[in-house]
Amino acid sequence: MAEPIHAAGAVLWRDGPEFALVHRPRYDDWSFPKGKVDRGEHVLRAAVREIEEETGLLARLGRRLPTVTYPIGDRTKQVEYWAARVTAEGPFTPNDEVDRLVWLPAADAERRLSYRHDLDLLREFLRGPLRTWPLVILRHAAAGEKSLWREPDELRPLEERGRAEATVLSGLLHAYGPARLLSSSTARCLETVLPHARRLRAPITTDPAFTVGQTSADEAMERLLELVAEAVPTVLCTHGEVVSDIVTGLCKELGEKVPDDPSLRKGEFWVAHMDPSGPAIAALERHSPLRKTARASATR
Fold first, then answer.
1. How far apart are CA 51 and CA 160, in angstroms?
2. Nudix hydrolase domain spans which residues (predicted)?
3. What pLDDT tens digit does each residue of the chain (300 aa) get?
4. Contact (Cβ atoms closer than 8 angstroms) between residue 40 and residue 82
5. What 3-state DSSP class applies to 138?
């Protein structure tokens, strides 16, 4: 069976709410912005890039929406979608691929969309919260073998591969917009979020509640719920020994299904898209700096 064609897109919205629809002259259709994932490109980067290329607009990704799959000739096209809110508007420049852009309220967008799967996406978006905020739970990048490190463990740094992962991670996390940065007080966790701190020009706050050897499952969970109550976009870098406990605890506390595998490999991260009116988890997704497609664990 032929490899699916991977693509990424978004239900792009602005206050109103109004929704961005694009017209493609090649097919004479109206749809949401989307496009193919380039070879070697991460799906998060592809989603943001396609929004900008097709509309000229900058946006931040919100909650994960269902993946759409449909046949294209003798192959299958798989499009991963997010809700995305516009953060900066500029002039639209027509091109050969997209020659018109319109902003429509939901009822008008439903009438204009050409495909049933886009209509289903819009209705799925409208069933959930309009606004969400991201809580990113990140496991530090590759830091070599603990058994080979002879100095205090809190000083163990990222290895070469881990430093490369940290750079990639900053680009992926940027898709969700600015966030406060919290970290375990170990060198490997701080180094993992350092490239993102420089990109955001933001400080990193260390927290013993998420530092291995200084915390417990109950302490980490209590602190995490305090962060949730504050409803501030957050990137939290911690350890494998902590991740499973806090992801499991968060889902149980907020009435969500616990993922079959709540753990993370080094450099991977969970994104819980939080509904501030709940608090509740509107969607949960998992990413690797190396994996090119998203893994949605729970959505509603």
1. 33
2. 3-126
3. 678 899 999 999 999 999 999 999 999 999 999 999 999 999 999 999 999 999 999 999 999 999 999 888 888 999 999 999 999 887 888 988 999 999 999 999 999 999 999 999 999 999 999 999 999 999 999 997 777 777 887 899 999 999 999 999 999 999 999 999 999 999 999 999 999 999 999 999 999 999 999 899 999 999 999 999 999 999 999 999 999 999 999 999 999 999 999 999 999 999 999 999 889 999 999 999 875 555 555 444
4. no
5. strand
Tokens read off for 152: 């205090």
Q: Are 281 and 254 in contact (CB under 8 A)?
A: yes
pTM: 0.92
Superfamily of the domain at 133-287: Phosphoglycerate mutase-like (3.40.50.1240)
Q: Domain 5-127 maps to which CATH number in 3.10.310.10, 3.40.140.10, 3.40.630.30, 3.90.79.10?
A: 3.90.79.10
Q: What are the extents of the domains in the chain?
A: 5-127, 133-287
Q: DSSP 3-state assignment of 11?
A: strand
